[in-house]
Amino acid sequence: MTGVRCMLMRGGTSKGAYFLASDLPADPAERDDLLLRIMGTPDPRQIDGIGGAHPVTSKVAIIARADGPGRDVDYLFLQLGVGDATISDRQTCGNLLAGVGQFAVERGLVPAGWEDTSVRVLLLNTGSIAVTTFPTPGGRVDYRGTTAVSGVPGTAAAVELEFTGTAGSVCDSLLPTGAVSDDIDGIQVSCVDNGMPVVVARAADFGITGYEPVDDLAADTALAARINAVRTEAGKLMGLGDVTALSVPKTTLVAAPRDGGAICTRTFIPVRPHPSIGVLGGVSVVTALLLEGAAGSELFVAPPDGGPVEIEHASGSLAVGIDLDTTVSPPRVTRSSVFRTARKLFDGTVFPRP
Length: 354
Ligand code: NQM
What we know:
Number of domains: 2
Helix content: 10-25%
Bound molecules: (1E)-4-oxobut-1-ene-1,2,4-tricarboxylic acid
CATH superfamily of the largest domain: Diaminopimelate Epimerase, Chain A, domain 1
CATH topology of the largest domain: Diaminopimelate Epimerase, Chain A, domain 1
């Protein structure tokens, strides 16, 4: 039986299989079929593959040496379904991005610096560039460190991710419906794409407080149906067409912060509750809430010192550094950054289901 070289990594609060593009078939249909069999999709438990039975652990990163100027590597992200045989390149993933630089160094695509290494990454799904910086003492990747990430036990080495040019990277523009807010089925929503297409709405408008534990939300099938109806309609307004089989847009329901952050969130990917919040998903939510008149913007408490925006979520909080262009009205997020951690879990050969 033929195996495929693969590294399993935790990136931020997600986990995925990382491959060199050259270790996979060049034909996308052949590649996708192979990846579904590697991850164990379709099966709610992914029992015959290495997927973790949740969208945040059913992810693939494919990395290649840069195929053009201005960056070091190219990163293609694929979101695999769990119970459904779907595979989509219509979104990127900022969490798996947290392991891309280290993977590139470990596979010899990029030389390591003596203390830190910065890798310029082209996000092939969206066309934007991110810079990832991580420790490489003595020229070797060191995953150990003291940085904690909500939703991940223990601590590990900090990975800084910096994003530019994310506005409208999946849809055509930052506000793909052309408006700061829209009405869908009597619910005020704001549809934004600052690296991830997200529908933002008030939790109260969906009949929840926005502080519920993830398990309660996961058991609420009426809520899932409501979210699905709204996001399907939003997908059309956002120019994404029929999003039934797509993982975007995500939905984030917001409530007033209650742990000292700027906003409290519960996110659905696309209808299953996220244990925390995605990286670019978080950037897009903050961007929406900075717009006057956006759904839930009145609940947003801006940090007093212009420091990072703390997004409260179901397992803690995510701090997002935001650079604002205040010369335009409303202000625009021009650059964003987050700290994550990542860890190599295994490096070896994976054997796909026949
Ligand atoms: O928004 C989950 C995750 C993500 C995506 C999702 C992400 C991002 O937590 O950049 O990281 O929204 O499906 O990995």
